[in-house]
Amino acid sequence: MLRQLGLPAIAEVDRFFAFFTSGDQLRYASQQQRRAYVAGDSRRWGLLTAIELGRWVQLAPRQFVGQVLSSSQLGQCLIDELRYLGQERVDVLLLDNQHRILLRQPVFQGTLNQCPVHPREIFQLAVLHEAAGLIIAHNHPSGSVTPSTEDLAFVRRVVQCGELMGIPLLDAFVVGATTYFSWREQGVLPLQQ
After folding, report:
1. Domain co-membership, 90 together with 21
2. By the 8 A CB rule, do 107 and 122 touch?
3. Where does the record place the MPN domain (predicted)?
4. How far apart are CA 103 and CA 92, in angstroms?
């Protein structure tokens, strides 16, 4: 950061810690104390601003996209959002332990009747966002919500990966034009071994 601001690193670190010997001294420093540190070199304001932004980001509460209350509630939302897509698309919803949605993101876009999918990308996102569970959803542009044999095989792979990773697949959806298929509602999840 000091190099980016054009400040001599070693000398500036010594100066900074001469003025602010601890984090709380900087946090509660008055404007007069901050101006004394800056001493006419406006680049030092950039350093103080960067530190303040870092503290602000660290204290910011996590934002949630929504909350999953039931498969039927989520299924209706998915119909509204996926039914008119001309290609198959797989979305993942990452949830915390209270079923609040941390992230909803498309992970694959396919063709009219198939979507090459691998659990690797799904679980990479789940680990990155510290998800406690996940839901996958994809549309069938044909309008049919009957899961294909590929759908069944894919859901089985995601369940197995989730068991290994400790991030369970809570539900999976196939979305059509006016209805949906939920593995959880149909009693398919959890999978029987």
Report:
1. no
2. yes
3. 67-189
4. 8
Q: Where are the alpha helices (DSSP H) in 129-167?
A: 149-165
pLDDT digits (tens, 9 = 90+) for 32-90: 999 999 998 888 888 888 888 888 777 665 555 667 768 888 999 999 989 888 888 99
CA 183 to centroid of chain Cα atoms = 23
Is there a single domain that holds both residue 163 and residue 76?
yes
What distance in Å separates the CA atoms of residue 132 and residue 129, rounded to the nearest whole number? 9
Which domain does 101 fall in, by range? Answer: 66-182
Whether 158 and 119 have beta carbons less than 8 Å apart is answered as yes
pLDDT, tens digit, 9 for 90 and up, residues 97-107: 999 999 999 99
Residues 144 and 113 in one domain: yes
Cis peptide before 119 (omega within 30 of 0): no
Residue 191 lies in a domain: no
Are 169 and 134 contacting, i.e. CB atoms less than 8 angstroms apart? yes
